[in-house]
Amino acid sequence: MTFKNFVKHENDNALEASYRVSYRIAQQGEAHIIAESLIKLCVKAVVTSMIGEEHAKLIVVPLSDTTISRRFKDTFNFCENGLIRRLKASEHGFTIQFDETTDIARLSILLVIVSHIHGMAAQEDILICKSLPFRTRAEEIFNFVNSFFKNNDV
């Protein structure tokens, strides 16, 4: 294996590890900063104890809070684009259900759930979950959701 291939392979592994850590952080609902301030330090401590200091220096997984935040967005966009592709390709159409609520800070939150057939099974997915920067009249909610569908050609 050449050095160039080694670096590419190691970078691919580091990128995959970064996405895996980001996914686990999102699943647990933890703050982005935990990756760099706790997880990376713990991984280095374990590697140092189990394998040795020289291997711990090789840990180059990008785990800064901005990187983790970017990974969250990448994963969200990947999932959203996949759902939109499935809705566009659906032979049976889909239905949507709206729920608008106000949280404890008096911010309006819109939740749009889409029901559709995927494969041979009925499936429900969250299509939109956004805080609304405006009053929550029916017309404004309709316009917001309508623009989402237009922007995504659904």
Distance between the termini: 47 Å
- Percent in strands: 15-25%
How many individual β-strands?
3
Give the low-pLDDT segments.
none
Q: What count of helical segments does DSSP give?
A: 5
- The Cα radius of gyration reads 21 Å
Order of helices and strands: HHHHEEEH
Strand arrangement within the widest β-sheet reads 1-2-3
Share of helical residues: 55-70%
Biggest sheet: strands, sense, closure?
3 strands, antiparallel
Q: What would you call the quaternary organization?
A: single chain
Overall outline: elongated
Mean pLDDT: 83
- How does the helix and strand content classify structurally? alpha+beta
Organism: Nephila pilipes (Giant wood spider)
Protein name: Transposase
Keywords:
alpha+beta, Transposase, 3-stranded antiparallel sheet, 3 strands, 154 residues
